[in-house]
């Protein structure tokens, strides 16, 4: 019998960049409440206690043991996800874990097994496949009368590699570079629109800056079990800005007027103090800027996406979905909720309170990670990689 009630009491493990991106959601969503946090940086924990009156815990184990926590939100570095998720699940907590789910399929299996053993919810995200226009595009594919998806194209360009980074964020074995952090978004989107069952992946990757010794770009070809295929391309080298293709709306849905090359210039100015700059800009740091109180005018996005069906092309945008048919094109606008990323909370509440199996569960997160790792393996081997852990979309 489910005795959990609203609001869901959230304990945060990791108060870094991912937390700051989810913070506007937590602040505006009445169905959740921030009650606890832990982080290696004491200033961040102190800031949390001041802002929310929550309890700062000395470590992850202490937070997971807290009786007033219903859900543990894991936003630690990628290589720690599996350990922290399993710890929270073993303590009887539901878990929302940031993407990527983990760094290996074996770690994903351990997390899913822990959730099953505990009888608790495990949700992987928020990836951009939660975004309302992406979800609406999937709904149109399933019920819009446009026929089967035959091809998906996805492309994005950002300054990702030149934002301030910790050392492990520039080390591929530790989950650094654009593959684990950015392909996880794009592959999730492509898998969702294509139905989920990727058969094989071929890919090339780019590592072009010796000072940033990890992958900064990739191009992948995904083949689905039903014969559909998709191309996914990304560059994080900070030259062309993919938001130009999205009406100059930034990734999180806010209007954008960024100065070209600003990320590289800030990094050069930081010189050898890159990690200190990152820490200063994180929650609780002396350069931290709290989220704006006004709501975004558009949805989050992850660049250009086009799904080609048998009888129409569908293009999600930050404000809705373009539908291109044989003799007409039309735009279906999609209203922006006052709570950013509300879709994440919707899925969490449905799963924890109503018992509805989540779309982005452990099996889904593992399948996306398998496909993400296949990009690295295919680039290394020079040939396609066959996948074995793919699952269909839960519509």
Topology of helices and strands:
Layout: E1 8-13, H1 17-28, E2 32-38, H2 42-52, E3 55-56, H3 60-65, E4 71-74, H4 81-90, E5 94-97, H5 105-118, E6 122-124, H6 132-143, E7 149-157, H7 178-194, E8 198-206, E9 217-224, E10 229-235, H8 262-270, H9 274-281, E11 304-309, E12 313-317, E13 320-324, E14 329-333, H10 342-352, H11 362-381, E15 385-386
Parallel strand pairs: 1-2, 1-4, 2-3, 4-5, 5-6, 7-10
Antiparallel strand pairs: 7-11, 8-9, 8-15, 9-10, 11-12, 12-13, 13-14
Helix pairs in contact: 4-5, 5-11, 7-11
Q: Would you mind describing this structure in some detail?
A:
The chain is of the alpha/beta class. It has eleven helices and 15 strands. The chain has a nine-stranded mixed β-sheet. A six-stranded parallel β-sheet has the order 3-2-1-4-5-6, sandwiched between helices. The longest helix is centred in the last third of the chain and has 20 residues, at 362-381. The protein starts with 7 loop residues before the first strand and ends in a 9-residue tail after the last strand.
């Amino acid at each position: 019998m489910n005795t959990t009630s609203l609001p869901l009491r959230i304990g945060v493990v990791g108060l870094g960049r991912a937390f700051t991106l989810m913070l506007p959601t937590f602040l505006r969503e009445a169905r959740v409440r921030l009650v606890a946090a832990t982080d290696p940086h004491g200033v961040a924990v102190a800031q949390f206690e001041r802002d929310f009156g929550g309890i700062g815990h000395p470590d992850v184990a202490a937070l997971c043991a807290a009786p007033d926590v219903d859900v543990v939100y894991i936003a630690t570095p990628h290589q720690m996800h599996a350990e922290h998720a399993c710890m929270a699940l073993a303590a009887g907590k539901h878990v929302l874990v940031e993407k990527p789910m983990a760094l290996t399929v074996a770690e994903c299996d351990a997390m899913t097994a822990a959730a099953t053993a505990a009888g608790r919810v495990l949700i992987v995200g928020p990836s951009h496949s939660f975004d309302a226009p992406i979800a609406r595009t999937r709904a149109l594919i399933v019920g819009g009368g446009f026929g089967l998806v035959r091809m998906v194209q996805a492309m994005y360009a950002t300054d990702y590699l030149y934002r301030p980074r910790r050392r492990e964020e520039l080390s591929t074995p530790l989950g650094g570079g654009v593959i684990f952090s950015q392909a996880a978004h794009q592959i999730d989107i492509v898998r969702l629109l294509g139905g989920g069952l990727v058969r094989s992946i071929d890919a090339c990757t780019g590592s072009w800056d010796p000072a940033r010794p990890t992958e900064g770009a990739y191009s992948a070809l995904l083949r689905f079990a039903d014969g559909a295929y998709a191309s996914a391309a990304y560059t994080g080298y900070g030259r062309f800005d993919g938001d130009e293709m999205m009406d100059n709306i930034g990734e999180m849905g806010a209007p954008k007027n960024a100065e070209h090359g600003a990320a590289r210039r800030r990094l050069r100015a930081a010189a050898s103090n890159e990690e200190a700059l990152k820490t200063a800009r994180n929650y609780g740091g002396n350069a931290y800027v709290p989220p704006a109180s006004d709501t975004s005018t558009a949805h989050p996005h992850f660049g250009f996406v086009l799904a080609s069906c048998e009888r129409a092309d569908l293009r999600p945008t930050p404000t809705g979905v373009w539908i291109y048919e044989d003799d007409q094109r039309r735009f279906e606008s999609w209203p922006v909720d006052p709570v950013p990323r509300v879709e994440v909370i919707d899925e969490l509440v449905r799963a924890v309170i109503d018992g509805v199996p989540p779309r982005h569960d452990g099996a889904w997160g593992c399948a996306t990670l398998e496909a993400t790792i296949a990009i690295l393996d295919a680039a290394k081997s020079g040939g396609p990689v066959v996948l074995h852990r793919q699952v269909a979309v839960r519509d």
